[in-house]
Amino acid sequence: MIEVEVKARIDNFTDIEHELEKLGAVKDKSEFQEDIYFQSPIADYGKTDEALRIRTTNNSTFITYKGPKLNRDAKTRKEVEMTIESAEKARDILTEIGFTPARVVKKNRQYYKLENFEISLDDVEGLPPYMEIEISLDDGNDYGEAQDKIFELFGELGITEGFERTSYMELLENLLNE
Amino acid sequence: MIEVEVKARIDNFTDIEHELEKLGAVKDKSEFQEDIYFQSPIADYGKTDEALRIRTTNNSTFITYKGPKLNRDAKTRKEVEMTIESAEKARDILTEIGFTPARVVKKNRQYYKLENFEISLDDVEGLPPYMEIEISLDDGNDYGEAQDKIFELFGELGITEGFERTSYMELLENLLNE
Which of A132, A136, B156, B162 suits a disulfide with B8, CB 3.0-4.6 Å? Predict the structure, then answer.
């Protein structure tokens, strides 16, 4: 699966929710997500631009691998996400095979659906408000068109700046290092 | 979880099934199991005596880490086993983070239950008949007693030799290298 994803800093959630509903977007689930990011024993994922994480939400637990970004403008990258039985067991296995839990990102995420867009309003602990728009494509599909559509939708929502390629994890890290 | 497990070569399944039923063991599920074992990029699991595998059965898929054996006589070791959504996704993630699929072990396993013993009659592709008896203990419990009970049960079943500490994967490898 290829995930094409663009994120932007927004002023506040209420105005954007209003704009989204005007365009016909449908409010979907809201959930608390706690992500534990791991460091690899053989690669510096900060430098290789990869990520391995365990995500725990209200209802489910996942393990997710994200490959390096494939282009400059959007966060287009390979993503493999798999439901698992337990965050605790996954952490135990990853630690035993050499991986190190490095950072935790916690957020409340409100999902919206519009056509084949998945829209997320992200209230991340320690960061200002962000919105993400994502389209998932099967491997091998052209992602340029998906990316154009995402930027078009941002435009319709009145957002033309504040785009951010840096992950929430790295944004939090940058704050800590300031 | 600590798994205390002893395996023995047996003559045939029919005689042992008869003996098991005489002792009151109850025939449990039977399943086909396909295990893919992985090699680590930072450790030679043959030498460190660890194992990382994906097991696919008729109904479920698991990922399992097994730590080094803690003693000589039984295969007493740490084991973490977690249900996962898909063998294909797990293989994809493990490959992306540096692990290499190394060997496949296929078997039909007939389970029996007796008190807190889990008994397995294993018809492994490429190997003669084996039986395993296992007790699972919470971490920190003394495994010496569990091990004694397992050898006692083997005795009651008339099995006093043919014990084997080598894994099916290694037994198959040894055959290939002969």
Answer: B162
Q: Which amino acid is at B113?
A: K
Q: Which helix (H) or strand (E) holds A46?
A: helix A45-48
SS3 B77: strand
Q: What is the CATH number of the domain that holds A7?
A: 2.40.320.10
pLDDT one-digit tens code per residue, B92-113: 999 999 999 999 999 999 999 9
- Report the percentage of chain B scoring pLDDT > 70: 98
Residue A178 has pLDDT above 80, yes or no: no
**Chain A closest-CA separation from residue B99 CA (Å):** 10
Asked if the Cβ–Cβ distance from B42 to A41 is below 8 Å, we say: yes
Domain that holds residue B79: 2-177
In chain A, how many domains are there?
1
Q: Scanning every residue of chain A, which has its alpha carbon at the shortest distance from the alpha carbon of B39?
A: A97
Contact assignment for B42 to A40 by CB distance below 8 Å: no
Give the Cα separation of B118 and B155 in Å (integer): 16
Of B42, B67, B80, which has the smallest distance from its Cβ to A42's Cβ? B42
* pLDDT tens by residue, B114-157: 999 999 999 999 999 999 999 988 877 778 888 999 999 999 99
- Chain A residue with minimum CA distance to B1: A89
